[in-house]
Design a protein that fits this description.
Elements lengths: L33 E5 L3 E5 L8 E6 L3 E8 L2 E5 L4 E5 L3 E5 L1 E5 L3 E5 L8 E6 L3 E8 L2 E5 L4 E5 L3 E3 L18 E5 L3 E5 L8 E6 L3 E8 L2 E6 L2 E6 L3 E3 L12 E2 L3 E2 L2 E3 L7 E2 L1 H17 L5 E3 L21 E4 L20 H14 L2 E5 L18 E5 L2
Parallel strand pairs: 24-26
Antiparallel strand pairs: 1-4, 1-7, 2-3, 4-5, 5-6, 8-11, 8-14, 9-10, 11-12, 12-13, 15-18, 15-21, 16-17, 18-19, 19-20, 22-25, 23-24, 27-29, 28-29
Helix pairs in contact: 1-2
Length: 384
């Protein structure tokens, strides 16, 4: 009674779609007994509910998966121990027995005995589609195959009443971001005191569901956790790096614009992503004026006349803010210079970047030093 082998989980990732029954979209949570059957020969399972999200796995025709949520033509399913989204166009409703895991952690095996090899684990509150039984063991769908769990630890979800609720987890319906750090810890909560549950690598894509302070709650390959927002950039592509490891600040973006040519706006990833984060926070507080960024560094770094610094992509010039909402040059002695807005902008720099030096000549603003020529811009330097 072993069913299909789990070796099918290693099949090549390809899609040959066969049309099938469609799933009507709704935003209501699933009931126990709510399950779907795959009608396509191969169907992608993704981190979020659109084709813009990263593919995490494949399921195939005939597989039955419990449903946790439906939204906008997409269906959130229990794939294995992970959750993932698939297009409802290639799924059809099935009314099958749904079990709810009651153990804190339950071994999933390749056959109906502890003698069979371990193929995974499920945790309390997760759901399984029960396809059959052998003695005290239940045959279930697990990934793109079938496996077995001991029935003593599977509650009867029924077919029409809600199952016991698992610990709430954010669903991967947020905005796609890409990891910029070489290695980034994903934690159980928004603090370095929380346990590390996964390590993400540069280029990994995550779905951000909410933020708290300098932390983002994300979903990666069906698992949720918290990471430092400092090491995420919105979108699915990282910008190309120069031979010196620098990246280019776009001419404009959320909350910022620039007043120097592109070849003068190369910076370290820490600087560029930090400037973009500052811009987004600035935009949340006001629409005008935007932050105005000037010289950073050349593409390959090195000497950058007339500057004595700006050699490593870790220095940036930024104009003070005007009080009348307009954008352009302004000096601290002019009537339309805004001390309050400029102070707020400098505060954001300290929030988002590892500042080691701040040069600016308004003596009423704390955490800055006087330097000749810095009446019409402030100079921020970060740790190399």
């Amino acid at each position: 009674m072993l069913g299909h082998s789990l070796s099918s989980m290693g099949r090549a990732l390809m899609v040959a779609v066969i049309a099938g029954g469609t799933i009507a979209a709704s935003a209501s949570p699933a009931l126990a007994g709510d399950a779907v059957e795959v009608t396509a020969s191969r169907l992608y399972v993704r981190d979020g509910g659109s084709t813009g999200f990263q593919r995490m796995a494949i399921t195939s025709r005939g597989r039955i998966h419990p449903v946790l949520r439906r939204s906008g033509g997409w269906v959130l399913i229990q794939f294995d121990q992970r959750l993932g989204w698939s297009s409802g166009q290639y799924l059809r409703n099935r009314d099958v027995s749904i079990g709810v895991i009651s153990a804190g952690a339950l071994n999933v095996r390749s056959g109906p005995s502890t003698r069979y090899r371990l193929v995974g684990r499920l945790t309390q509150g997760q759901r399984v589609a029960v396809l059959g039984s052998s003695g005290a063991w239940y045959r279930i769908t697990f990934g793109d195959g079938e496996a077995w769990v001991h029935g003593d630890y599977v509650g009867n979800g029924g077919t029409s009443t809600p199952p016991p609720q698992p610990r709430p987890q954010p669903q991967p319906t947020g905005v796609v971001h890409t990891v910029t750090a070489s290695a980034l810890n994903m934690r159980t909560g928004p603090s370095t005191s929380n346990a590390v549950i996964r390590r993400l690598m540069r280029g990994n894509q995550v779905s951000v569901t909410r933020t708290s302070g300098g932390w983002s709650e994300v979903v990666h390959q069906g698992r949720s956790g918290w990471v430092s927002s400092r090491y995420l950039v919105r979108g699915t592509q990282l910008p190309p790096r120069s031979s010196g490891g620098l990246i280019n600040l776009p001419a404009s973006g959320a909350g910022f614009t620039t007043y120097q040519s592109s070849y003068r706006r190369w910076g370290s990833p820490t600087m560029i992503y930090g400037l973009q984060r500052i811009g987004r926070r600035w935009a949340q507080e006001r629409t005008r004026p935007r932050m105005q960024v000037g010289d950073i560094s050349k593409e390959g770094g090195g000497q950058f006349p007339p500057h004595a610094s700006h050699r490593y992509g870790t220095d940036a010039d930024v104009r003070p803010a005007r009080s009348n909402g307009t954008e352009g040059p302004v000096s601290i002695g002019q009537s339309y210079y805004s001390r309050n807005l400029t102070k707020r902008l400098i505060d954001l720099f300290y929030d988002e970047l590892p500042i080691t030096l701040m040069l600016f000549n308004d003596s009423s603003i704390p955490r800055r030093q006087y330097a000749s020529g810095h009446h019409n811009h402030f100079h921020a330097r970060i740790r190399r």
